[in-house]
Amino acid sequence: MEVTRLSTKGQIILPKSVRDARGWTAGTSFIVEEMGEGVLLRPESRFPATRLEEVAGCLRTKRKPATRKQMRAAVAREIVRRHDRGRY
């Protein structure tokens, strides 16, 4: 356990080992939540929450869409491939 102090400006320096372990760099935004006996710092999500309806179909392609039969065949091939690798 490492110890840090609150500065006169209300700032706390997170130990380098914690920042490195979490991948937090300068400019990382945090959500601060008051808990029973302390405070929880949680990094803010990098991407806003979205619903499928908001993003479905947003990427353009010149390819013809796959049929249901083609999609089922592709899924079946992937299941066999993963099974052969010992994933299932």
What's a concise summary of this model?
This protein is an alpha+beta fold. Helices cover 32% and strands 11% of the residues.
Describe what you observe in this structure.
This protein is 32% helix and 11% strand. It is α+β, with helices and mostly antiparallel strands. The chain is built from three helices and two strands, in the order αββαα. The radius of gyration is 23 Å and the shape is elongated. A two-stranded antiparallel sheet has the order 1-2.
Main attributes?
alpha+beta, 3 helices, single chain, two-stranded antiparallel ribbon, 88 residues
- Note poorly predicted spans: none
Spatial strand order of the main sheet: 1-2
- First-to-last CA distance: 40 Å
**Beta-sheet strand percentage?**
5-15%
Order of helices and strands: HEEHH
Helical amount: 25-40%
Would you tell me the structural class of the helices and strands?
alpha+beta
**Distinct helical segment count:** 3
Rounded to an integer in angstroms, the radius of gyration calculated over CA atoms is: 23 Å
Topology:
Blueprint (H helix, E strand, L loop, with lengths): L15 H7 L7 E5 L4 E5 L8 H4 L12 H17 L4
Antiparallel strand pairs: 1-2
